[in-house]
Specification:
two-stranded antiparallel sheet, about 140 residues, alpha+beta, 4 helices
């Protein structure tokens, strides 16, 4: 089942116009963002607000139906970041110049690797947006 128009609106509003994984901003995107199933439908995920996240096309495409990935440090399988249950800043941090995202936890590191959160095009955009003072975006305060 696909998310309804109202679910898409609520999901985008809740995300404050940012990809909930790489923190790219909708207003600077060249492609439409998706309302994605955090737990894929193939794995039993439903089109319910607590299972929906706003994702840029890059993150959505790399995530696809994944819910786990290999942590590059421990070489163990780790769950991917869950925007409804986890706080971004507890799993990730920005490089000093705010161009790169690093994982703090196994979940963070696995998500950075699997979703390729430091894709060249995104890093270049972050660099430009930082220079004009519109990056990084503010993290939403509440996790639902």
């Amino acid at each position: 089942m696909r998310p309804t128009k109202e679910q898409k609106r609520i999901t985008a509003e809740r995300a404050h116009g940012c990809c909930e994984y790489c923190r790219s901003q909708v207003r600077y995107a060249t492609e439409t963002f998706s309302t994605e199933h955090i737990e894929p439908q193939k794995a039993g995920g439903k089109a319910e607000l607590d299972n929906l996240a706003l994702a840029c096309q890059g993150c959505n495409n790399h995530k696809a139906t994944k819910i786990k990935a290999i942590d590059p440090v421990t070489k163990q399988l780790a769950p991917l970041f869950h925007p409804r249950l986890q706080k971004w800043s507890e799993h990730f941090y920005w490089s000093e110049d705010y161009t790169l995202i690093f994982g703090i936890t196994a979940t963070g590191r696995a998500t950075v690797a699997a979703l390729k959160l430091n894709r060249e095009s995104v890093v270049n955009l972050r660099r430009a947006l930082y220079l004009i003072g519109t990056h990084p975006p503010v993290e939403p305060l509440n996790v639902e």
